[in-house]
What does this fold into?
Amino acid sequence: MEADSLLVSDREDVSVLFEQQQHSSKCQELSGLFSSVRKVRGDGNCFYRAFCFAYLESILHNVEALQRFKEKIIMTSERLSSAGFDPSFFQLHLNTLLNVIEHCEGSERDEMLFRFLNDHVTSDSVVQYLRLLTSAHLRNHADDFCNFVEAPSLQDYCHQEVEAMGMECDHVDILALTQALDICIHIISMHGEDEQLVHHVIPDGAEPSMHLFHHISHFSILGPRPPP
It folds into this structure.
């Protein structure tokens, strides 16, 4: 598979993120914490694609964790139904995600994850299901989120900004998806004038399952350095 056609790249040295400013304190801090990065296609779906790939990669060699995640995903269909989605609208995407998880339980799990999340049809179907799940969580917890979206209504926001492919995610979407799947993420960015990186752990105080690099509305997957 050609590198420029990949949706999620092979691991690259983390220095590719800051080749022009590698001597800054932020870059030195980042390279001290992380050794590698997987670049994710900047098509408006990068958060959801990075989220799925990074989480599955983090549990890829833990049979029990993969089984728990599969069971959790199966149960999410009830939440989509309760939010008003017809099963005929989401069942195909749900089956696609379950198929990916099941292949990740096999002997060639690393290769399968990479292959499936780089197959455009499969990868986009997985992204679509995560978008629908995010929307369902927002709709089912409308009182918690309605004051934090910039739209005439929460339903309008979900339909136009969350469910539609290619729409960049907002903080409220990240919060909804992490709550829906009970997964903690660590987002690192170089935003701001401070000399230190900005760290966001969602939810606060939990142990992150993945580390994402955020830069100008784009997300990449960071690989931590092994402990000394």
